[in-house]
């Protein structure tokens, strides 16, 4: 059997490893090719501004991985030689971790984040750190250090956020895998806006240790990729117990041997998929998203699923009062600084706020956060924690009543916002971040093409179910992906000669 020629654009973990085994590709060649695309498109050409730091030792690391592959005759880790882009709030001991902020531009953590340690141990190569919404506070992916990230499908639009740099970079084929953090919907928003797959895991499955925080309660870290299988490969590596983040004790024994190996292309056959009317818009501005979502439902039905439409009385009022990040931010950030290591340019949240280096909207947000003296003892905070439990029960009870395997909805009810808007409107991330239940976002289709969006703007669907159902959710998304192959690469970053 002849191995097909390796194609860099839309490359996957499997296609890269097949080329390594065939001897037609080395990690050095792969990294050189990605670096060429970064050089051509990140600050030149469409000028996506997706990245903040490119690993200066990437080629040196690639050579080491090639030597290891040869010495071990290919018996290496599951991500060996796979380039990864980290959102720049994941600590790296060999590169700055800035959160997109000018005052943090020289911050050098003393150790890698727990998940980064696991990636390196699996053989991954950290190629770059991505631009983001500053300190992950918001959804349009603009920072004082890196400026505005642009969406490669429509250069007049944002890439979602806060992990928008990772989203734009993977959509533009700057690497294979990426990471995001998700307080509200910050993994899933850029997945939706860039025709990618994003996973917000169950609370306790993946460590937040060494990831710059917003919230003790809402924060999660997870994978972003171009395919469901690649997202599953990265989740395999990221999941695990970390004493630094004790909540991960809840996830011990809950992960399968491999999320990637458990994928089932026939998972939609016999599945009951709930369509929650509370999460869909009814105005003319919602028409494009609704059209794509209706087509997604028809596809799922054609694959053997039963679609159950329903609404949840009381959901909207309750969901509007479950956010806890404002009350937790000060204590969470001070804990991060205390663990960062010696000789840092910023050592406390107070010093950071007083530096006044953040972009105006983020500065205003942080000043409101630090004004709360003891947020964890605040009566409103305690009420919101109770509301989170109420929302979990409300959603779980409706799923049990209707015998649902998952709930389907658009991550965003309207197309992703134009650049220059201060916020990302009408996102549905609260169903996951307000309950702690896992969610998987995946490409559903595209809006009608326009002059600025020649193939349309990506529209992402999301599936959610109860705790530790990631194998089922990933399989449902995988079955849809295999039936539709909905993802298409952007035209603004074509193959290089």
TrEMBL record:
InterPro entries, A to Z: Amidase_CS, Amidase_dom, AS_sf
Domain of life: Bacteria
Pfam family, one: Amidase
Record-given protein name: Amidase
Gene3D superfamilies in the record: Amidase signature (AS) domain
Domain Amidase: 30-474
Organism: Ramlibacter cellulosilyticus
């Amino acid at each position: 059997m002849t191995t097909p020629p390796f194609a860099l654009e839309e490359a996957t973990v499997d296609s890269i490893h097949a080329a390594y085994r065939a001897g037609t590709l080395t990690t050095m060649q792969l990294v050189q090719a990605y670096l060429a695309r970064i050089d051509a498109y990140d600050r030149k050409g469409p000028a996506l501004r997706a990245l903040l730091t490119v690993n200066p030792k990437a080629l040196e690391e690639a050579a080491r991985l090639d030597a290891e592959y040869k010495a071990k005759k290919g018996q290496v880790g599951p991500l060996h030689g796979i380039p990864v882009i980290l959102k720049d709030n994941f600590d790296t001991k060999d590169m700055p971790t800035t959160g997109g902020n000018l005052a943090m531009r020289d911050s050098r953590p003393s150790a890698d984040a727990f998940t980064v340690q696991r990636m390196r141990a699996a053989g991954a190569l950290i190629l770059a750190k991505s631009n983001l919404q500053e300190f992950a506070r918001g959804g349009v992916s603009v920072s004082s250090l890196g400026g505005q990230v642009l969406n490669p499908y429509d250069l007049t639009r944002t890439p979602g956020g806060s992990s928008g740099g990772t989203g734009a970079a993977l959509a533009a084929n700057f690497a294979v895998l990426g990471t995001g953090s998700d307080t509200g919907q910050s993994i899933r928003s850029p997945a939706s806006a860039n025709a990618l797959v994003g996973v917000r895991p169950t609370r306790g499955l993946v460590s937040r240790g060494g990831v710059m925080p917003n919230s003790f309660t809402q924060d999660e870290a997870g994978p972003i990729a171009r395919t469901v299988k690649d997202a599953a490969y990265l989740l395999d590596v990221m999941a695990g117990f970390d004493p630094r983040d004790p909540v991960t004790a809840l996830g011990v024994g809950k992960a399968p041997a491999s999320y990637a190996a458990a994928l089932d292309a026939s998972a939609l056959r016999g599945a009951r998929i709930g369509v929650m009317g509370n999460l869909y818009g009814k105005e003319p501005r919602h028409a494009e998203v609704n059209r794509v979502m209706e087509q997604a439902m028809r596809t799922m039905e054609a694959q053997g699923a039963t679609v159950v439409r329903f609404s949840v009385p009381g959901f909207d009022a309750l969901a509007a009062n479950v956010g806890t990040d404002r009350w937790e931010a000060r204590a969470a950030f001070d804990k991060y600084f205390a663990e960062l290591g010696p000789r840092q340019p910023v050592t406390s949240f107070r010093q950071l706020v007083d530096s006044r280096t953040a972009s105006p909207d983020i500065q205003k947000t942080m000043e409101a956060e630090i004004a709360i003296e003891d947020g964890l003892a605040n009566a409103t905070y305690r009420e919101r924690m109770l509301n989170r439990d109420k929302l979990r029960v409300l959603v779980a009870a409706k799923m049990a009543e209707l015998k649902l395997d998952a709930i389907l909805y658009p991550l965003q009810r309207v197309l992703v916002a134009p650049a220059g808007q201060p916020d990302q409107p009408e996102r549905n991330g609260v169903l996951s971040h307000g309950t702690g239940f896992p969610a998987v976002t995946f490409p559903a289709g595209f809006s009608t093409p326009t002059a600025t969006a020649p193939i349309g703007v990506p529209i992402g669907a999301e599936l959610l179910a109860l705790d530790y159902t990631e194998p089922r959710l990933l399989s449902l998304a995988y079955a849809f992906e295999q039936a539709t192959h909905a993802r298409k690469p952007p035209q603004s970053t074509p193959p290089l000669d």
